[in-house]
Amino acid sequence: MAERSFDTNFWTKPFIQKLSARGKLLFAYLKTNVHCNQAGVYTITLNTIAFETGLPLKEIPGLLKSLDPEVVWYPEENIVWVKPFFEEQARSSKFIASALNIITRDRLPEDLPEDFQEYNSRLLSRITTGYPVGLTKRECVAIRDKFTCQYCQKLITLPTDYEMDHVIPKTRGGKDNYMNLVASCRACNQKKMDKTPNEAGFVTPLPKAFHAAQALFLLKNSPELKKGWLQLFPERESIADSMLANIDQHYSILVQDTLLSNANARANAEELGVVKGEEGKQKASNEAKELFDLWNSLGVIKHKKLTGDMTRAITAASRDFSVAEISQAMKNYAHIVNDEQCYFKYRWTLKDFLKRGLEKFLDLGVALSNYSKGGSNFADGKHKPLTKGERGRDIRGPLR
């Protein structure tokens, strides 16, 4: 991307004026360097930033953090998202299509595509046809919860009455993922604010894991859900049919309600501090060993020993998902990479799988739809769910 515009009011914006001289330089560099693409979401290392700007390498992490919320830095992936860039530069349909293709590719952090589309929803809502516009996380939560407030069970029919609520508030360490997000009416949201449900006098809801592909399938096959969706998001009326045009009518959704409810109950308990002390530590250690042994038995990449980094990655994943869910995701992942009818062959280490791939493989049906050669073949009989024998198969691989 050789050419781009630069807003001459950049230097007078209040956010920019509050930055240090080096912070201003870094922000301008992130918008104008040769690595930046149409989405403003790209891979760049700290060493590259230091070499091209002359900024001291040791200061760059702190400077990147100082640019929040205008710039989001993903240190583990070496990815930056310059949030205002897309809207500032979007002047043609070709530019918009290129940006959307970039943010739907596989190697980005799990929540980034949905966050990108939600942040740029005002601009994207004006797109009428031909571009891969997806649902925002806010829309997906409303669809999953059937437009019903999860605190008072009221049906939400007005856009002004809908709020997406964090069950455990972000200010209290709550995650920004489907396992911690629910639909709420405005009154309940205002009553709850930064409290936990118990503190606000509500029963704690148990949100389920979800995926945008599931939401699109439900909209395609349920006129009632589609009607409720357009009531809350009327700006989608002009592009609704094009968004749903290529969704497979026979797509299977393999949501395991009991498993997910147990996972949610456990996640809520841990977030609220129910699991504590030495008993909790021993349980976590046993779970880490169980998951490590399962991973090695699947043979995607075999590790010689359970390292501290792996244990920490397992602990982090366990805050959002149960051992059963993580185990099933591992089996689904092994199934996909060893299936000749699937094009996804990237073999992560255990640590990388937990950080970058876990949510992609929670649901085998979703994964098969995403990674089957030539589109979803799951419904036509070419793919089937894993049998008990396949789930336990020991696929040998090299030690690493």
Walkthrough of the structure:
- The protein has 400 residues and is mainly alpha-helical.
- The chain folds into three domains: 10-124, no CATH class; 137-244, DNA Binding (I), subunit A (Orthogonal Bundle), CATH 1.10.30; 274-391, no CATH class.
- The protein has 20 helices and five strands.
- The chain has helices spanning 14-17, 21-32, 46-53, 60-66, 85-89, 93-103, 112-119, 121-124, 137-144, 186-192, 212-221, 223-232, 240-244, 257-271, 277-298, 308-318, 323-337, 350-357, 364-371, 388-391, and strands at 41-43, 71-74, 79-82, 162-166, 181-185.
- The strands form two sheets. Strands 1-3-2 form a three-stranded antiparallel beta sheet, with helices on one face.
- Helix 2 (21-32) packs across helix 4 (60-66), helix 9 (137-144) packs across helix 11 and helix 15 (277-298) runs parallel beside helix 17.
- The longest helix is centred in the C-terminal third of the chain and has 22 residues, at 277-298.
- Residues 249-278 and 376-400 have low confidence and may be disordered.
Describe the secondary structure blueprint for this structure.
Blueprint: H1 14-17, H2 21-32, E1 41-43, H3 46-53, H4 60-66, E2 71-74, E3 79-82, H5 85-89, H6 93-103, H7 112-119, H8 121-124, H9 137-144, E4 162-166, E5 181-185, H10 186-192, H11 212-221, H12 223-232, H13 240-244, H14 257-271, H15 277-298, H16 308-318, H17 323-337, H18 350-357, H19 364-371, H20 388-391
Antiparallel strand pairs: 1-3, 2-3, 4-5
